[in-house]
Amino acid sequence: MTPPTHRPGRTAALHKARARAAADPVDSSWPLRLAEDLRDIRADWKESAGVCADAAWAARAAGHSVLGLLSSRDVTATGHDPITARTLAHLYLSALRFDFRCPTLQRLVEQLTQTARQPLDCYTRALFAFALLGQSRPEGLAVTDEVLAEAEEHPKTLHVLLHGLWLGQDLDRGAERLLALSSRPALDTGTDPIVLFRVAGALRRLGRYDEGLLAIDRAIDSLPPGDPSVHADLVRERSLLCAARDLHQHWSPTPMSGNRPS
Hints:
Elements: H1 10-23, H2 30-40, H3 45-61, H4 72-76, H5 82-98, H6 102-115, H7 122-134, H8 139-151, H9 155-167, H10 174-182, H11 193-205, H12 209-222, H13 228-251
C-alpha cells in the first residue's frame, strides 16, 4: 500500500480541508467536518497540526473562537476515533494557546494524558510545553527538549515552543534558549515576522537593544499588509526596545574626562 504521505493530490486535499474549515466560522459543525476531512486522508500529526492551528487562528480572527464551539468535554471524550480525537484536541488546545490560557491548557493536557487511548502526539506535547513555559515553570524546559528530539524541523511545533519561551519571562536562560531555537533551519529564514518579533523581545531581555531594533524593523518590513493586530504588536515591541535603550543610556555612568583637575 502506498503510504498516505505519498498519495497524489495530498497537498490539494489538505488545502481543501483548510479552506472548508475557514469558509463559515459561524457554523458550529465545522470542527467535526474538519475531523472527517482529515480522517478521509488519514492525516498524520504534522498535517493535523498545520491545518488545525491555521483553522483555530482564522476562527479566532473572525470572532468565533473554537472555545465557543467546543468544550473541554469534547476534547476528553473517549468515544472518538483517533484522528477525530486528535483534531479536536489540536483545535481546542491551539485556541487556548492563542488566548494565553496556560493553566487551563496545562490541566487539559494532563487530563488527556490520563484518558487518551494512545500516547499524545508531538504537537500536543509541544502545546503542553507552551503552557508550562508560559507560566515560567522550569519543567517546561525538559518537556521542550523531549519535543525537540522528535519534532525535527516541523515549523508549527517549533513556533509553539518559541512562543512559550517568549512568554515565559522568568525562565532560566529563557532568552538565550529562544535565540538558539530561532536559529534552527525551519525558523531561521530571515523573513518570518513572528520569529523576528520574538527574537527582538529576547534581545531586549538580554540588553542587546540595537540588535533588537534591527530585528523588529525587519519584522515590520516583512509583515504582509492588512493585519493591523499583529502590526500593533510589532510596533509595541519597537517602542519597548526604544524605551529600554533610552533608560539604559540615561542611567549608564558617564565616561570620566581624561583631563586631570588643575
